[in-house]
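Sequence in, structure out.
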Amino acid sequence: MFALSLFALVSAATSLAAPAPAIVPSLTCRKSASAPLAIKFAGGAEAGIVNSQGATPVLVTTRNGAAATEQFDFYLCDSTFMNTQSVGGSGGSTFYGQLRRASDGLCVQTTSRPQQSNPTENTGFALKKCSFSDDSSQLFGTWKLVRSKGQKDGALTFINGRQAQENEPNNNGQGEYIYFVEVINPTKTVIAARPQGTGDGSMLLMKNVTNYVVSGPL
């Protein structure tokens, strides 16, 4: 009887001492914009963005600079892990979240994460299943959409890291690791993320957005 009671006490103590499994919070997202994508080159010319066919579709420019018609959706998903907070006002809006293909909901994510210590490293983008966990998985697919007042086009940049403090290195002095999306040389087809000031000066756009929607307060 004593041995059995002792065993029960030890088992109970062990159960109490065991840490509870960590609960990963989930993202709460809402659609805020829909439009085709385009790349705007430094000289002003534009080309539509589509996905190449293959085992893992990647984003490429259209042939001969044709406009794209495939719709992409921007979902506002403020993330505690990424420390992002969307804001809106009379002068425009800045949204953080996921870029998804409208037809199937796949997310536009990096194929690998560029190292912030290498100012010339770039990475391409592919369409992959979205992650809705508010954790390090968001490092591969967090985007920033800026809408200026009176402009139909929204400017997209890729956020390659958690929101940083102003005095941290390699954050472009803006508190975040902004990577512009440009066309990789010399192929001039596959688009990729590059650190600010290291690429060809092109910009990724959501074209002619007419339905910016934010339900509820920012």
